[in-house]
Give the backbone structure.
Amino acid sequence: MPFFQGCLFGLSLGLFAPMTGCGGGVSAGSAAVCTQDTFVPNYVGEIGGLLRWERVPVRIYFVRDANYSDTRQALAIQGLEQWMAAASNILKYRIVNSESNAQIKVRFDPSTVDGMTDYRYFVESGLLSDADVKIGIKGNNSVDIQSVAAHEFGHAFGIRGHSTNREDMMYPTYTSNVPLAITSSDLNTMKTAYCSLFQPLTPAPRSRRYETLVHERIVCPQHLHGEGEAFR
Ligand SMILES: [Zn+2]
């Protein structure tokens, strides 16, 4: 039975804390060999836990509504590619043309400069089931669209919260028109989620028949004030 939840500014710490800081990667059920200290520096301890997709490539679909354009998709993919490049293309994705075949659905929202990611995941394994990403395009700034996309894809790939270091991609706010990079802390946090991709293990079969599927929402308050600094 899915559990639905929404909350501002990230995660719902009160519900559960199923993750140990070690994800599985390509296959579920791999023995846990990563700890929070395997890939450092990271901010695993600052967030509500890590989730992950069971295998890569992750299938992504851009919803063809009135706000879609090839240019916006290209900008969003540039943001996503920042993660892929940082992770030496060990993380993988595939753009699909069928919504029903997608694991992550992406929409553009002209009413806001914020981003938001909804996802459902299985509590016991921490495996993601599906995710919806909204990318605010109100400012119509190419740099910002790419940054918001990169940030939201960070959530959609399993980072459940925000960094407290404003240098990190996963810091909750940004400065308009200033490109953001994936920091070593961003990358190491993601690598911890996908532990076995970066430290291959022999997978073990696992059934999720008896797992609990839950829903969360991360709203990223990237409000811009004037021309310069974002809301802090
Ligand atoms: Zn966020």
